[in-house]
Design goal:
Layout lengths: L3 H15 L4 H22 L5 H5 L3 H12 L5 H19 L23 H14 L3 H17 L3 H5 L11 E5 L5 E5 L2 H13 L21 H15 L7 H15 L3 H8 L4 H5 L24
Antiparallel strand pairs: 1-2
Amino acid sequence: MESASTLIQDFSRHLREGRRRSPHTVRAYVTTAERFCAFLAEHLGGTVGSAQIKALKQADIRSYLAFRRADDLSNNSAARELSAIRSFLKFVGGDESAIPAVKGPKVTRGVPRPASPDDIIAITQDIASSAREDWIGARDWAVLLLLYGSGLRISEALDLTAEALPLSDTLRVTGKRGKTRIVPILPKVRVAIEHYIDLCPHEMTPDKAIFRGKRGGPLSPNLIRRVVERARTNLGISDKTTPHALRHSFATHLLAGGADLRSLQELLGHASLSSTQVYTAVDAAHLLDIYQNAHPRASNS
């Protein structure tokens, strides 16, 4: 019988290599699996391994969710934990139909909160002007314009390597689960990236990240989040304006201007159209025209 610790290690490897899940998802699922197995050891009163996990009943999973609810877990968080548990049980048992059926809590799907173009540019300008070195300011400016101009996730932008150089009108991006897609690059975004590359003191070799840290290593997403947070504070802008909000802004601005959902789904790299449909709930009254025709930053002027 495989122990819980061995199963969790194998589960982590399965998520990373077999399912190609993001590092964030792997951490979240593995943490839930560890917490779940620790609970089972006390709940069942003994060692937990593959045999005990395969024999779990609906009541055991309900007991775990009740245990977690005592920590004031929200419905959305409880639903995510249940999803992680189901994934772990399927991995251990190998049969999805054998997993005890437990109805998840009702989840309220929040409406994305786009940032205004003026706020986006104000933040990027503040970051660029506050940087200690010109190349770092140019780097952060280019990263944030790329998130907004092409709708990339921050991890997708920072995973880009110099193999993509020289830049053209489009960019091949690797998204979740290793799926690739082609996204357009606005002229101003391309100019910003090329300006950063001209100033960057680190050599752009094909196997290295385009966006580099001060010492030449890959740029950390947390660093971008921190500089955006400082700029928000300096400018008195809502704390909802995060790097990921720039992706929301890209989507809502295009949709409001007339982009169809299927095209937007392709640009965002969503596996399911339902993930894209949340943007239809955003108030379009203050949004702008579609990509290339009247995107807020599409003009060369």
